[in-house]
TrEMBL record:
PROSITE patterns documented for this protein: ABC_TM1 (PS50928)
Zinc keyword on record: no
Residues of the ABC transmembrane type-1 domain: 102-318
Protein name: Sugar ABC transporter permease
Keyword terms of this UniProt record: Cell membrane, Membrane, Transmembrane, Transmembrane helix, Transport
Topological type in the membrane: Multi-pass membrane protein
Chain ranges passing through the membrane: 15-36, 45-68, 106-127, 139-158, 196-218, 239-261, 297-319
Family to which this protein belongs: Belongs to the binding-protein-dependent transport system permease family.
Subcellular location(s) per record: Cell membrane
Amino acid sequence: MDWLLHAGDDPVQKLLLMLIAIALFVGLMAVILFVVDRPRNPPRWFVGFGFIGVALLLLTLGLLYPAVSTIGKSFLRRNSDDFIGLDNYVRAFTEPQFLIVLGNTALWVLVAPLIATFFGLVYAYLVDRSRFEKVAKGLVFLPMAVSMVGASLIWKFVYDFKPAGVDQTGLLNQFLVWLGGEPQQFLLLDRPWNTFLIMNVFIWIQTGFAMTLLSASIKAIPTDIVEAAKLDGVSGFGMFWRITIPSIRPALVVVLTTIAMTTLKTFDIVRTMTAGKFDTSIVALEFYEQGFRQQDAGMAAALAVLLFVIVIPVIVYNVRQMRKVEEIR
């Protein structure tokens, strides 16, 4: 069976390994179905366990065990088995390096979802039922088709810097030169301005997501409510603020919380733009740096646990809001 350990060296062995895995899966499912179907009147719990047992096992091995293991490692020193209690968590909330990381993460969670949702909402409202609605929405949704890394590379060229007197390749610096200004190294600006510039990449992508969901919610507003508001003399901004916003509030909260959760795992944008340098790192990137670059598995695990703790209330609130949306429908 040693050839299984080196299956990556030979395409034929790869194919055989894949076929063996498929055969094992089919055989396992056949055994489960046979056992479940064998009794004439099996108890419900037996049938249910037969169908979801494999899924529960895989979830335990792929989700529960790694979570418990990560929590355990967060109380250890680096890659050793030395128990140090809450020292890693104390470091995360006291050392300047990690305080900057936590501050940047808070900025991402608070600022990026608000701006992306605001732009998406306003744009969806303005182009709703317009003559060029499909084209206008397609242009804003287009960045969603670009990967995070691809979008980061695009914006990295936008921010590209060349010394004064040299032809600028960065679009933003070229505009500054045309206006008589000096080119700037935007990603090297003081914190938090460089962080806000990196957020532009995320906002550029997520605005299309917010616009799509909120546009569908706006179209779902009953026409009788709109007509009644018009008869009462409501129009323009009043229609937007008094009718549209209250009517789509549950969907608005879902969009905000969903984008907020996405910011917590925004690893690739920061990694591509600055690799966390110039005080731009966030938790999702820092626990990677600590675990794989600094070889400090304990600190990396503590940061991962912190990220998990942060995202739990957001997920719970998001699920509640989604249920409210379903109840309204």
